[in-house]
């Protein structure tokens, strides 16, 4: 499904003040509806079980949560798209129209990485997602400047890849710091509005624009905004009946923190699923526009060009075809929350990373050289200066791009990376 030009023009024209309906009729309509699902949340949401070392998890907290609760295959493998369509509204109250583009792109990425069709043998329009981990293929479904994941080419002076798939508490706390929220014991109830989420978005772009390998940072605002709409829909402040508190949706930061860090539903903190009659594509697009248009108090440094623009297309379908070469996926056991969510009531300690994330070092860069670069940051700037400017960035979401051009852009980025690493190696060894 592609967004029509008319829809995109309408989205861009929505002013911030009117970005979300706030009349009493809409509020009266917004009540907890379980849409045919069990009224008992324990029956509806299943039981949390942490993933095992051989299970598959990916860069999306929503799908990791569904797998942890058994609403899709607990091992995160061989996921039928029809099962995903049933699980998303059951778990989060998200209407099916809000995930159509994501599902299409899941299938495309599945075929990118595997090199063969992922369509179901029944030939009924469904497909089998091989596993959740392959969604970590960089710059496809996965994107840079995530709220809770490292970028694929972060810590770039090591010349290797970084864990862009699993939850990282340092990155997530960087997001929360932008609005002054820190996990506490007991959890502190707090909310964030459109303006604050725009500040989080810009802070994450600034941080990763400085941290990533030159030429590899990919600004992907449409996808980030769509993700933001999902976060608002999943965690807007609501009472125990599911009725929204106030007239404009506000993210409950304690719920957001619990959901992302535990990869579990924050029912222990009073959360209930939204209504599919409210949490739909229109909700997501409206919230995305409101966040984009929200004024902020100050700009972070080193923002990429265009970060503060107020008009962007929505995330569309990835181009079908063969955009190989693909990139090696980060490999490790899946993230497991350090505390069992079921044991968390109203008191909890601040989270720490359960496992360190180290980049994969190529043979061309020894640990000695890497440590020297760490100790002498000036080597980085000198190496980049010797290598020259980075090539144009590739973007799988660019709808007009053809396969040949895409392959050439990826190859140019890889060649530039090798050149910079060679310059770093030469300078560090001198």
Structure description:
This protein has helices at 5-13, 24-29, 41-45, 61-68, 81-92, 100-114, 169-177, 194-211, 221-235, 253-262, 281-293, 367-375, 378-387, 403-429, and strands at 77-80, 128-131, 191-192, 251-252. It has 2 domains: 5-357, Chloroperoxidase-like (Chloroperoxidase, Orthogonal Bundle); 361-430. The chain has a two-stranded antiparallel sheet with strand order 1-2. Strands 3-4 form a two-stranded antiparallel ribbon. With 430 residues, the chain is mostly helical. Helices cover 39% and strands 3% of the residues. Mean pLDDT is 77; it is low at 1-34 and 343-373. The radius of gyration is 22 Å and the shape is globular.
Overall radius of gyration: 22 Å
Average pLDDT score: 77
What helical percentage do the residues reach?
Answer: 25-40%
Provide the low-confidence segments as ranges.
1-34, 343-373
CATH superfamily of the largest domain: Chloroperoxidase-like
CATH class of the largest domain: Mainly Alpha
Number of helices: 14
SS-based class: mainly alpha
Strand content: under 5%
- Our measurement of the CA-to-CA distance between the termini, rounded to an integer number of angstroms, reads 54 Å
Shape: globular
Strand order of the largest sheet: 1-2
CATH architecture of the largest domain: Orthogonal Bundle
Order of helices and strands: HHHHEHHEHEHHEHHHHH
> In this structure, how is the largest beta sheet organized?
2 strands, antiparallel
Number of strands: 4
What is the name of the CATH topology of the largest domain? Chloroperoxidase
């Amino acid at each position: 499904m592609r967004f029509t030009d008319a829809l995109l023009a309408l989205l861009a024209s929505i002013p911030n003040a009117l970005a979300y309906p706030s009349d009493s009729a809409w509020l009266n309509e917004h009540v907890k509806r379980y849409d045919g699902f069990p009224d008992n949340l324990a029956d509806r949401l299943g039981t949390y079980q942490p993933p095992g070392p051989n299970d598959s998890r990916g860069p999306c907290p929503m799908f990791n949560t569904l797998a942890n609760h058994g609403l899709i295959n607990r091992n995160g493998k061989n996921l039928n798209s029809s099962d995903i369509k049933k699980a998303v509204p059951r778990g989060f109250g998200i209407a099916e129209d809000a995930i159509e583009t994501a599902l299409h792109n899941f299938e495309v990425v599945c075929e990118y990485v595997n090199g063969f069709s992922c369509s179901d043998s029944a030939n009924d329009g469904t497909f089998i997602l091989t596993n959740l981990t392959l969604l970590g293929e960089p710059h496809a479904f996965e994107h840079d400047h995530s709220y809770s994941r490292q970028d694929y080419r972060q810590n770039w002076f090591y010349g290797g890849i970084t864990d862009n798939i699993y939850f990282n508490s340092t990155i997530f706390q960087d997001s929360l710091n932008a609005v002054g929220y820190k996990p506490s014991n007991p959890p502190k109830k707090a909310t964030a509005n459109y303006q604050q989420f725009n500040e989080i978005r810009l802070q994450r772009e600034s941080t990763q624009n400085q941290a990533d390998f030159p030429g590899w940072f990919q600004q992907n605002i449409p996808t980030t905004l769509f993700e933001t709409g999902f976060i608002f829909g999943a965690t807007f402040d609501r009472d125990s009946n599911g009725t929204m508190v106030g007239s404009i949706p506000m993210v409950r930061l304690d719920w957001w923190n619990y959901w992302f860090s535990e990869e579990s539903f924050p029912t222990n903190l009073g959360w209930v699923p939204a209504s599919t009659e409210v949490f739909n594509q229109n909700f997501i697009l409206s919230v995305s526009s409101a966040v984009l248009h929200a004024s902020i108090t100050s700009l972070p440094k080193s923002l990429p060009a265009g970060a503060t623009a107020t008009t962007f297309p929505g995330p569309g379908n990835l181009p079908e075809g063969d955009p190989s070469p693909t990139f090696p996926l980060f490999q490790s056991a899946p993230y497991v929350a350090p505390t069992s969510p079921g044991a968390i009531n109203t008191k909890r300690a601040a989270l720490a990373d359960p496992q360190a994330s180290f980049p994969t070092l190529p043979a061309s860069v020894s640990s000695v050289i890497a440590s020297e670069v760490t100790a002498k940051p000036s080597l980085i700037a000198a190496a980049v200066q010797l290598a020259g400017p980075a090539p144009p960035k590739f973007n799988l979401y660019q709808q007009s791009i053809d396969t040949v051009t895409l392959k050439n852009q990826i190859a140019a980025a890889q060649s530039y990376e090798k050149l910079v690493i060679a310059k770093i190696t030469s300078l560090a060894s001198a």
